[in-house]
Amino acid sequence: MLVWWWWRVAAAGTVLAGVLSQNVTLTSTSLVNQFLLSPLAVVRLENSNCDADLGRTGTCLTLFECYARGGVKTNLCGNGFGVCCLIVAKENGVSYGNNTLILKDKFDSGVDITYTIRRLMPSICQIRLDVRRLYLYRPENNGKCETDYMTINQDDKIGKICGLTENIHFYLDVTSEVVFTFHTSAGVSFTRDWEIYVQQLMCDFMSTNAPQGCGQWYWGTSGTIDIWNNVDPTTADWYYLNDQSYAICVRWEAGYCSISYTESLQFRPFCSDLFERPFTTTLLRTCDTSPPTSITPLTYTVTEGLQEFFVGFKDGSNLHQGSPGLPFQNPSIMYVQNQC
Ligand SMILES: *[C@@H]1O[C@H](CO)[C@@H](O)[C@H](O)[C@H]1NC(C)=O
Ligand SMILES: *[C@@H]1O[C@H](CO)[C@@H](O)[C@H](O)[C@H]1NC(C)=O
C-alpha cells in the first residue's frame, strides 16, 4: 500500500513538475492537489504575492493552507494550483499569516480596535508594513496625535501615528506577537479608513529585511522617500508627526557611484527637531525656527558612504505647523542613482 502511494506520488510529481512555471516551487516530496484527490495532497506554492479582488494583494497558497490560516480565497494563482488567499486581520482578534491585511472601510465614529498578528515562527524578527491608506484625524499643531491614532506594541521607532498617509512602507523589529491599536474619537467627525499589509520577515541573509535601525529601506535606482502623514490636505493642517526616531536608508546599487536627492519645495524641519541628511554636513541642520517664508528646494549629490537620513522628531513642544504656503511640511525626497 505504502509502495503504491509512493509510486502514485512520484508519477504525479513528474507530471505536475512539467507544467508548473518557475513561479511555483515544489518543496515537498508528497505532491499532488485537489485535482488528483489524494489524501497526501500537498503542493507547496512559493508564497508569492497575487492579485486578489478589488485591487488587493493576497498570498498564493493551497486552498487548505488558506483556510488553515483563516484566509478567504479569491482568484486562482500559481497556474491554477493555488488560490490567491486574502488574510484579513480580525478586529479585536488574533491572526496568523503572512501579508495579513489590516482593513477597515470608510467610517465616521469613535472606536477602539486592536489587531493581533502572531508570528509564523520564532525566527520572524521584523515586519514590513505596506500602508496603502491610513486616514486618521490630523495631529495637533505640535505634531502630537491626540484625537485619533494608531500605535504598535513593538520597537520604538514611532510613537502615535495619525493624519493622512498613503503608499509608504515601514519596518519594525519584533520579538513577540504584534498588536496594532487604533483609536478614533467620537467627538470629531471625520472619515477614517485603513488598508495596511503586514509582511513577516526572517532575519537571515536570504531575506529582504531592512538593516538594523532603518524604519524605511529603499532600493532600486530611483524612487521617492515619503514618510507618515504624507498627504497634503490642502489646508494648513499638514504637519510632520512628533515622536519619531529612525533612519531612512537607501541601498547603494552596484554599478552606481553617487545618489542625487531633490527635496520637496516646502520641506524644512523646525530646528529643535533633527533631520540629518547623509554625509552632507553643510545641509545637516538646514532648518527654521519660524515657518519658512521662502525656500528653494534642496538638491544634493552624495558620493560615498551610507545613504542614511536620520529622523529625530522628538520636540513635542514646538509648532510643527505652518500656514498654507508656509508649512513645516513632511519631506518628500526624490532620488536618482548615477552610473559610474
Ligand atoms: C512569474 O511572475 C512574474 C512577476 O510576478 C511575472 O511577470 C511572470 O509573468 C510570471 N511567470 C509566469 C510563467 O507565470
Ligand atoms: C512573507 O512574504 C514576503 C513577500 O510577500 C516574503 O518575502 C517573506 O519571505 C514571507 N515570509 C515568510 C516567513 O515566509
Automatic annotation (TrEMBL):
The keyword Signal applies. Keywords: Disulfide bond, Signal. Residues 77-201 form the CUB domain. It comes from the Eukaryota. Residues 1-17 form the signal peptide. Disulfide bonds join C145-C162. InterPro entries: CUB_dom, CUB_metazoa, Sperma_CUB_dom_sf. This is CUB domain-containing protein.
